[in-house]
Amino acid sequence: MYYYPLHPPYFLLLVGLLIAVTSGIALSGTLKVIAQKWPRERAKNVKPKSSLKELLVPFLGITGGICLFLTSGLQIFGFPTFLALGIGLPISLLTCLLVWLQLGSMLEFVERQGMQSLDLDSLS
């Protein structure tokens, strides 16, 4: 049987997108602040503290926005609410978990090797 909601969640789709974009801007600004602190901490011979705690709130905002966006998008295309949640939540949460783990490993790598280690253009 074909299912189509009477009132598709277009508003929730836009809200999810807005949450994800604004949280992404906040994450970008926080990363820039963290990267600016590193040379000063290295000059003082202070071991840089873990930066992941500062990034948790913006990253959770991105995760929530993506979950809302993906679930609402699936509902707009005719998926029932429980099925949209059953598909959208695991996909977005797993993807965000993998990105979080990669971000953490990249920050540790940069703290150990320096920012020049990420410059792939100089290797050619």
What report would you give on this structure?
There is one protein chain. With 124 residues, this protein is mainly α. 74% of the residues lie in helices and 0% in strands. It contains 3 helices and no strands. Helix 1 (10-43) runs antiparallel to helix 2 (52-76) and helix 2 packs antiparallel against helix 3. The mean pLDDT is 86.
Features:
124 residues, mainly alpha, single chain
Summing up helix and strand content along with how strands pair, one would put the structural category as mainly alpha
- Report the β-strand fraction as a percent range: under 5%
Give the uncertain stretches in residue-range form.
Answer: none
- Quote the average pLDDT: 86
Anisotropy-based shape: elongated
SSE run = HHH
Supply the number of helical segments: 3
Question: What is the makeup of the main sheet?
Answer: none
Number of strands: 0
Give helix % range. Answer: over 70%
C-alpha Rg (nearest Å)? 19 Å
Q: Separation of termini?
A: 58 Å
Q: How would you summarize the topology of this molecule?
A:
Layout: H1 10-43, H2 52-76, H3 81-113
Helix pairs in contact: 1-2, 2-3
What's the quick description here?
By secondary structure, this protein is mainly alpha-helical. It has helices spanning 10-43, 52-76, 81-113.
